[in-house]
C-alpha cells in the first residue's frame, strides 16, 4: 500500500483509495458515512429515499427471480488466483469505439435521477467526467441533453489531488472530455426521434444505444403497490427530455398541459413494438447525422438476436435483461454471455449489463468475453446517500476493488490476461447463492 513504492503503469493506482480511507480514519478519525458493501448499501438506501425513489431504483419484474438469477450466475463462476506474479503496475485500460478509456466500466443509462438527488443526471455525468469513464444518458432523463453534456464537461475539466485522472483519447486523437453514449427509447414519431439524435450528436454524444426490451414496462408488483409512475404526478419529473425538445413541444405542448404523461407514454414506453427493419432505418439515420459513429442495441439475451444485430449492421450489443426488471423467470445475463461471445465476440463490441456489484463481478464478465460493463444501481445507491460525494465514493470504491482484485489475484492486464482467459475462472454448477446475498425489497 506504499504509494511511493509503486511504478506508474497504464492505469491510475485506484487501489490507493482504500489507503486514503484507512489513513483518514487512523489519523483524523474520519470514517465513511455509509457502507459500500453492496447489500448494506442497498439496505441503507431505504432510509435515504421515499418509497417512490427507492422502489423505482430497486423494483424487479414479478417475483424478482431474474434479478436473483443474475446474482446466482456470478456466484457460480469462481476466480482462479495466480501467485508470484508482478502486479505492482496494472493495466485496466481498453479501447471502446475508438475511445481510449482507463477502465472498461460505463455509467449505465438510468432514468429519473432527480428521484435520488435534486440535480439528477448532472451528478453522475460530472463524476463520469472526473473519472474519464463513459456516461450513458437515458431518454427518460430528468435533465435535458444539453445540461448533462455541460456537467460531463465540467467533471472532465477537474483533476483529483493525486493528478491521476486519465482523460480519454477520442476518435480524432486526444480530447478533454469522457466519451458519451445516448440511450434511445424510440417512439413512433420519426421527427421526434431525429430531433433527439441531432441534439445528442450536437452535445457530444457519439455512440447511440437503442434499448429494445422496454417499449412496454414489465409487471413490477412493488411499484404497482404504490402506483409508482412519477411521470403522472404533479411536476412531471422524468419528462424533461420531452419538454426540452423543440419538435415534441411544437407537436404536443397542448397535449402535455392536459396529460403530464404525454411524453413518456408517447415517446418512451409507448407499448408498440418495433421491428428489425425499423432498426435498419434508425442505423441509417444515426450514421447520417453522426458521420458514421457507432450504433449499439441494448437488450440482447440470445445468440439468434446477437447474430441478427450483426447482420443488420450494429457495431455492438449490450447483453442485458434490464437488471431483471422486465421478464420474470428469465435467464441470468451472465449465463448467456459465453455463447453470445462465441457467436459474435470477434465481430462486434459486447457490453455486459445486469447484476454487477463488485470488482470480482467486473473481472468475471471480462473473463467471459465482455469488452466492457455497465454499472447502474450501485451509483444510484451512492447518489441517494450523499449526492455527488456519495456517487463519487461508490464509483471510486468499485475501481479500487477491481484494482486490488487484479493485484492480489495475480493478473496484470484486464484485456490481455483476463479477457477470454479460460484459465482465470472455474464454473461450479452445484453452487447455490446464499439467501442473504440477493436484491431485497
UniProtKB/TrEMBL annotation:
Native source organism of the sequence: Meripilus lineatus
GO terms of molecular function: FMN binding; oxidoreductase activity
Binding site for glyoxylate: 56, 185, 220, 322, 325
Highest taxon in the source lineage: Eukaryota
Pfam families cross-referenced by the UniProt entry: FMN_dh
Keyword Oxidoreductase set for record: yes
Stretches that traverse the bilayer: none
Protein's UniProt name: FMN hydroxy acid dehydrogenase domain-containing protein
PANTHER family, sorted: L-LACTATE DEHYDROGENASE (AFU_ORTHOLOGUE AFUA_4G07050) (PTHR10578:SF75), S -2-HYDROXY-ACID OXIDASE-RELATED (PTHR10578)
Lineage: Eukaryota, Fungi, Dikarya, Basidiomycota, Agaricomycotina
Residues covered by the FMN hydroxy acid dehydrogenase domain: 30-427
Family to which this protein belongs: Belongs to the FMN-dependent alpha-hydroxy acid dehydrogenase family.
UniProt entry keywords in alphabetical sequence: Flavoprotein, FMN, Oxidoreductase
Cofactor(s) of this protein: FMN
Amino acid at each position: 500500500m506504499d504509494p511511493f513504492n509503486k511504478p506508474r503503469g497504464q492505469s491510475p493506482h485506484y487501489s490507493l483509495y482504500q489507503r486514503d480511507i484507512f489513513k483518514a480514519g487512523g489519523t483524523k478519525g474520519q470514517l465513511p458515512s455509509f457502507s459500500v458493501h453492496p447489500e448494506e448499501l442497498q439496505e441503507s438506501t431505504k432510509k435515504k429515499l421515499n418509497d417512490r425513489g427507492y422502489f423505482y431504483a430497486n423494483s424487479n419484474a414479478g417475483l424478482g427471480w431474474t434479478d436473483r438469477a443474475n446474482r446466482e450466475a456470478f456466484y457460480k463462476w469462481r476466480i482462479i488466483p495466480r501467485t508470484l506474479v508482478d502486479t505492482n503496475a496494472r493495466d485496466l485500460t481498453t479501447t471502446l469505439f475508438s475511445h481510449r478509456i482507463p477502465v472498461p466500466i460505463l455509467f449505465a443509462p438510468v432514468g429519473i435521477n432527480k428521484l435520488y438527488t435534486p440535480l439528477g443526471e448532472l451528478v453522475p455525468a460530472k463524476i463520469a467526467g472526473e473519472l474519464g469513464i463513459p456516461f450513458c444518458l437515458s431518454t427518460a432523463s430528468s435533465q435535458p441533453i444539453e445540461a448533462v453534456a455541460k456537467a460531463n464537461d465540467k467533471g472532465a475539466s477537474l483533476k483529483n489531488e493525486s493528478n491521476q485522472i486519465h482523460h480519454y483519447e477520442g476518435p480524432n486523437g486526444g480530447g478533454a472530455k469522457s466519451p458519451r453514449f445516448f440511450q434511445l427509447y424510440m417512439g413512433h414519431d420519426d421527427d421526434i426521434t431525429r430531433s433527439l439524435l441531432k441534439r445528442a450528436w450536437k452535445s457530444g454524444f457519439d455512440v447511440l444505444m437503442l434499448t429494445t426490451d422496454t417499449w412496454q414496462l414489465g409487471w413490477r408488483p412493488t411499484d404497482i403497490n404504490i402506483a409508482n409512475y412519477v411521470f403522472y404526478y404533479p411536476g412531471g419529473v422524468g419528462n424533461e427530455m420531452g419538454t426540452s425538445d423543440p419538435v415534441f413541444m411544437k407537436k404536443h405542448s397542448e397535449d402535455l398541459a392536459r396529460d403530464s404523461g404525454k411524453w413518456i407514454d408517447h415517446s418512451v414506453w409507448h407499448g408498440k413494438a418495433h421491428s428489425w427493419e425499423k432498426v435498419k432505418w434508425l442505423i441509417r439515420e444515426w450514421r447520417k447525422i453522426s458521420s458514421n459513429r457507432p450504433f449499439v442495441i441494448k437488450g440482447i439475451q440470445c445468440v439468434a438476436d446477437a447474430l441478427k444485430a450483426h447482420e443488420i449492421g450494429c457495431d455492438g450489443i449490450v447483453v442485458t435483461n434490464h437488471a431483471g426488471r422486465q421478464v420474470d423467470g428469465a435467464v441470468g445475463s451472465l449465463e448467456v454471455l459465453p455463447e453470445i461471445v462465441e457467436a459474435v465476440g470477434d465481430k462486434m463490441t459486447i457490453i455486459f449489463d445486469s447484476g454487477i456489484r463488485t470488482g470480482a463481478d467486473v473481472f468475471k464478465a471480462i473473463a467471459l468475453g465482455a469488452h466492457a460493463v455497465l454499472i447502474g444501481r450501485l451509483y444510484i445507491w451512492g447518489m441517494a446517500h450523499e449526492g455527488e460525494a456519495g456517487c463519487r465514493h461508490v464509483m471510486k470504491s468499485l475501481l479500487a476493488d477491481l484494482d486490488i482484485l487484479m493485484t492480489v489475484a495475480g493478473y496484470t492486464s484486464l484485456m490481455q490476461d483476463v479477457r477470454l482467459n479460460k484459465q482465470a475462472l472455474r464454473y461450479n454448477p452445484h453452487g447455490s447463492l446464499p439467501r442473504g446475498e440477493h436484491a431485497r425489497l
